[in-house]
């Protein structure tokens, strides 16, 4: 999940540099959503993980 967030973030940066504002905004939004999902899953993993 974090890998996809980073990929979309890089796409957003490249699109912004090249002047594609709409694509950059969309990719940035997707990257933000994926990062939040990653954080939620990470917290759930730490709180509900099995202890050996």
Question: What is the strand tally?
Answer: 0
Biggest sheet record:
none
Distance between the termini: 25 Å
User: What class, by secondary structure content?
Assistant: mainly alpha
What would the average pLDDT be, to the nearest integer? 90
Strand content: under 5%
Question: What is the N-to-C order of secondary-structure elements (H for helix, E for strand)?
Answer: HH
**DSSP helical segment count:** 2
Radius of gyration computed on alpha carbons: 14 Å
Q: Helix content range of the residues, please?
A: over 70%
Low-confidence stretches: none
What characteristic shape results from the CA principal axes? rod-shaped
Describe the structure.
By secondary structure, the protein is mostly helical. Helices cover 87% and strands 0% of the residues. The protein is built from 2 helices and no strands. Helix 1 runs antiparallel to helix 2. The longest helix has 28 residues, at 21-48. The two termini are 25 Å apart. The mean pLDDT is 90.
